[in-house]
Design a protein that fits this description.
The chain has ten helices and six strands; from the N terminus they run αβαβαβαβαββααααα. By secondary structure, it is α/β, with parallel strands linked by helices. The longest helix is centred in the first third of the chain and has 18 residues. The structure holds guanosine-5'-triphosphate and magnesium ion. Magnesium ion binds next to α5.
Length: 259
């Protein structure tokens, strides 16, 4: 299988970046904050005694009280900055953190790390104030590392997303895996829908105007009907509908979230 090899490659990238960084910004997706915390990144940082800040990105997609609850919980371990690269949230606070770091050290290199698609490159662009790193809804956009100068003695390192040794399915639910690369998109979409039905069924109504049903498969079928995705003879194209849902999740078009 391709997965372990990819994982080893990414782990070695993470190690390399960690050895070059003085500080780590671990970017997570605020909608699934605990699932997008990256154990490889955190463990490597711990081993090497590097300071970690959690950047809880995409907070524009979640309610404030949820964000605050998560922050409180995570701050037992690391400082957390609520951030949105899309809206203007958290920029001032993060600028302040960087400024303080730059005063404490002659030279600061900050490794920006996390799962694919959590918004690492977008956070960097926001801090820089213009587009210096390439971003895309497609997970796996950033291929190599890139050094970005933020101040005379402050550098950010943009990095490719780091995955840990886990299944494609789990990565897809984190929005870190391209739906077209899944062997069983329907199965994964059903898992996602199940999670959404458990936690925020109204989000399906908001995004698609469908009444969420109790059964994930029925909900997926209903959605295919609504989108009018059909195979021959008028049956719903479940495969295509599944990929659409997964893409909408990746793109932040479905406003569901959970602990
Ligand atoms: N709603 C919302 N979307 C965001 C935010 N930040 C990034 N995005 C979107 O998330 C997607 C991924 O952003 P990137 O910055 O490319 O993510 P990345 O972590 O660098 O991804 P890789 O390089 O693939 O690992 C893009 O479609 C962004 O527009 C945010 O704060 N809010
Ligand atoms: Mg990137």
């Amino acid at each position: 299988m391709e997965k372990p090899r990819e994982w080893l490659r990414e782990k070695s990238i993470a190690k390399k970046i960690l050895s070059k960084s003085d500080v780590v910004f671990e970017v997570i997706d605020a909608r699934i904050p605990f699932e997008t915390r990256n154990s490889v990144v955190e463990n490597l940082a711990k081993e090497r005694n590097k300071k970690v800040y959690i950047i809880m990105n995409k907070v524009d997609l979640i309610p404030k009280d949820f964000a605050k609850k998560v922050k409180k919980e995570m701050e037992k371990e690391y400082p957390v900055i609520m951030f949105s690269a899309r809206k203007n949230i958290g920029k001032k606070e993060l600028d302040r953190v960087i400024k303080d770091l730059s005063k404490e050290n002659r030279l600061v290199k900050i490794g920006v790390l996390g799962y694919p698609n959590v918004g690492k490159s977008s956070v960097i662009n926001k801090l820089k104030g213009r587009k210096v790193a390439t971003t895309s809804p497609k997970p796996g956009m950033t291929k190599g590392e890139q050094l970005i100068k933020l101040a005379p003695n402050v550098f950010l390192i943009d990095t490719p997303g780091i995955i840990t040794l886990e299944f494609q399915e789990d990565l897809a639910l984190k929005g870190s895996w391209i739906p077209e690369k899944l062997e069983q998109p329907v199965e994964i979409a059903l898992k996602l829908i199940e999670k959404i039905l458990e936690n925020k069924p109204e989000s399906l109504k908001e995004s698609y105007g469908i009444q969420p049903l109790e059964d994930p498969l029925e909900t997926l079928r209903e959605l295919g009907e609504r989108l009018n995705y059909r195979i021959s003879r008028g049956d719903v194209d479940l495969d295509r509908t599944a990929k659409k849902v997964l893409w909408d999740w990746i793109k932040g078009n479905i406003k569901a979230y959970w602990i």
